[in-house]
Specification:
Elements (H helix, E strand, L loop, with lengths): L1 E6 L8 H12 L4 E5 L5 H6 L1 H13 L2 E7 L7 H12 L10 E8 L4 H14 L3 E2 L3 E4 L6 H20 L33 E5 L7 H12 L5 E4 L27 H9 L4 E7 L7 H9 L13 E7 L6 H13 L3 E7 L5 H21 L7 H15 L7 H9 L10 H13 L3 H14 L2 H8 L2
Parallel strand pairs: 1-2, 1-3, 3-4, 4-5, 4-6, 7-8, 7-9, 9-10, 10-11
Helix pairs in contact: 4-9, 7-11, 10-12
The structure holds flavin mononucleotide (FMN).
């Protein structure tokens, strides 16, 4: 059987993900797994559409497609995202339609769910027949049982193609809107004082809803914010995953990106991102900004600051994108101050939402308000903390030092208060009478600490 493997690693074949595909090639020699280095070759495709069409022909001739990619910042690498955008731009969706598809990734399982969901959504939008995905830890190939699981999964994919197995949909198609936002005169201005407010946008053309919403926000802030178009940043390409930055946060690229971040964005109190939905996420260009920010590894970028988003497009129909937005804000240590979209299709309401958003951003920044993190931030932090402490200790030396200095190695093993209390209580309930007494008192006693705060004057 002919399987087109769309390799999402910017490292090309010198990639962890590709080693899994090579393992399949070795174990399943009766099948032809054709590796296509999508992310690595993306600039070639953009410059020479013939090379892009060749890849599409490989897809067209295949019996099935494996979307094989490394996790990059909650999603796939910007280069892979760009390839996906080109499918629609070049109107070659037909090459994918009705083909069996599955997603395979390697990662440390940090938001692998959102990346897999995204690829699944894209496959469904392309009319592909989606089978089960497989999200491997980077090191699964070293473990017998996990290698077996991986082979089982690949075998099931091939079998689904042979058997013409039925497949279902996870998501409904997105219903686009064609509304043009016309901002009115702001009803109130928001004083920004000493706050540093930065808006980073993929503006599109000047008349786009994104550009209009950003301009309106800028008016509400009375010019008290700096607006940057992501196309004006000197970024020569997407993150290459080369890890040259891991020791000391020095990026391999010698373009203007790092200086831009350090000179323009560092020290921002309110960081606002803006852009239109392209397929089911922001544009590849905005994604490139987030990927390239990996020159700072796993260090949160705006601890205790505010973050907001302006989205042009059907965000309410995209819960996966919503999760990424919230997860991103939380993992950067920020408070997600708000999200404004143009979905209402009502310019007056959008004006009001932008004004409310501006007020809240400034109020939260001035009062230091930070909402508690949810599972996304709490869980994400624990993954990073554990990885940087052990497996990723090398090469991520800069991360390790930062985590140490900022007490981010907050392992529960060091929490003496709870450890000692638990030890005493566990000893106590070894006595059968005490065990029953504690059992009876547990509900009430759980509240003793709270009582103090709630009842004391
Ligand atoms: C820029 C960048 C971003 C990454 N983002 C994530 C992430 O969001 N979640 C995760 O689990 N791993 C993340 N990783 C780790 C890679 O997904 C992982 O190392 C993968 O196995 C690399 O595969 P490759 O060698 O095929 O490129 C990231 C790595 C890089 C370089």
């Amino acid at each position: 059987m002919k399987i087109a493997v769309l390799n999402g690693s910017p490292k090309g074949t010198v990639s962890v993900t590709v080693q899994y595909i090579r393992f399949l090639q070795k174990k399943l020699p009766d099948h032809d797994f054709k590796l296509l280095n999508i992310s690595h070759d993306i600039q070639k495709y953009e410059k020479n559409l013939e090379t892009f069409r060749k890849v599409i022909d490989d897809v067209r001739q295949a019996d099935g497609v494996i979307w094989a990619f490394p996790l990059y910042v909650f999603l796939v690498a910007s280069q892979y995202k760009r390839f996906i955008e080109m499918i629609w731009e070049q109107k070659v969706e037909d090459a994918f339609r009705d083909k069996y598809a599955c997603a395979f990734s390697t990662s440390v399982h940090f938001f692998d769910n959102t990346a897999h969901r995204y690829i699944r959504e894209i496959c469904e939008d392309l009319g592909m027949k989606c089978t089960e995905s497989f999200s491997a830890d980077m090191d699964d190939l070293f473990i017998d049982q996990r290698r077996e699981n991986f082979l089982k999964w690949a075998g099931d994919f091939l079998k689904a193609i042979t058997d013409k197995a039925p497949t279902g949909r996870f998501v409904a198609p997105v219903v686009p809107a064609h509304f043009i936002y016309k901002p009115g005169k702001p009803k109130r201005m928001v004083e920004t004082g000493d706050l540093k407010i930065s808006v980073l946008a993929d503006m599109g053309d000047k008349e786009s809803n994104t550009a209009q919403m950003v301009d309106q926000l800028s008016r509400i802030f009375n010019g008290g914010c700096r607006v940057y178009d992501v196309w004006d940043i000197d970024m020569r390409g997407g993150c290459l995953g080369c890890l040259q930055c891991a020791f000391d946060n020095k990026c391999f690229y010698k373009d203007g990106f790092v200086d831009f971040v350090k000179n323009e964005l560092d020290g921002t109190d309110i960081m606002i991102f803006a852009g239109a939905v392209k397929d089911r996420f922001f544009s590849a260009r905005l994604k490139m900004f987030w990927d390239r920010s990996f020159f700072r590894g796993h260090i949160p970028s705006h601890i205790d600051k505010q973050m907001g988003f302006i989205v042009s497009g059907p965000l309410a129909q995209l819960p996966n994108m919503q999760e990424i937005i919230q997860g991103y804000a939380e993992i950067q240590g920020t408070n997600l101050a708000g999200i404004v979209t143009d979905e209402s299709g009502d310019s007056v309401q959008i004006d009001a939402s932008l004004e409310d958003f501006a007020v809240r951003c400034v109020d939260y920044a001035q009062s230091g308000y930070i909402r508690p993190q949810t599972f996304l931030g709490v869980g994400g932090h624990k993954i990073f903390r554990d990885q940087i402490w052990s497996r990723l200790r090398f090469p991520f030396d800069a991360d390790f030092k930062f985590y140490l200095e900022h007490n981010l190695f907050d392992f529960p093993q060091n929490d003496k208060r709870y450890l000692e209390f638990s030890e005493q209580m566990i000893a106590m309930i070894q006595d059968p009478d005490m065990r029953e007494a504690v059992r009876k008192a547990i509900k009430k006693e759980m509240l003793s600490g709270y009582k103090k705060v709630v009842e004391e004057k």
